[in-house]
Amino acid sequence: MSRMGFVIDLKRCIGCDTCAVGCKMENDVPPERFRLNVLDPHRDPQLERPLGVYPALSQFWLPTMCQHCSDAPCVAVCPTRALWRDDDDGMVSLDKDRCVGCHRCEEACPYDALSFADETTGTADKCSFCDHRLAEGQAPMCQTVCPTRAITSGDLDDPASAAAQLVATRETWVLGESTGARPNIFYLKP
Question: Which CATH architecture group holds 4-188?
Answer without folding.
Answer: 2-Layer Sandwich (3.30)
